[in-house]
Amino acid sequence: MIARTGRGTELGEVVGPCRDSQKAADSMVSVVRATTEEDELLIRRLDRHKREAVEACRAALAEAGSVACLLDVDQIFDGGTLVMHFLGTVDEVATTVTRSVAEKYESIVRSRHFAKLLKDGCGPDCGTGEGGGCGGGCSGCAVKCR
C-alpha cells in the first residue's frame, strides 16, 4: 500500500487490524491506496537504485577509513529521500560520505516533475478514490487512477 507519513509518501505493508480506533485516528500515517502495477514497476526501479546507493556508501566508507557501520537504508517512495541507519557512532567522515552518496542517489531517481507526480498525481487525491484529481482515466501520471 501507499501511505503518507511524517517522512513523506512511503510504501507500507498492513500486517494486521488496528484494534484501537483512537490510536488510528491520531496516527501520523494515512493510507492513500493499494499499490498499482505502475507502482510495482517503480518500486523495482527504486530498489535497484537503493541497492547501488548502499553498495556505494559501504565502499566509500571503507575507502575513507570510517569505522561507521551502515546497517540499512529506508527509501521513501517519492524517491527523494534515503534514511540511513548505522550501528554505533557516526563520525564526520561517514556523515560526509553518506551525504554525498544520498545526493547522487536522489539526483538519479528524482526530478521535480517525477516527485510531483508521485505526490499529487494529476491533482489532489489522485488515485485515492475520493473524487479529486483525475476523472479516472488519466495516463499521464504515475498515480494512474483505477
TrEMBL record:
Domain PSP1 C-terminal as annotated: residue spans: 29-118
Cross-referenced InterPro entries: PSP1_C
Domain of life: Bacteria
Protein name: PSP1 C-terminal domain-containing protein
Species of the source: Rubripirellula lacrimiformis
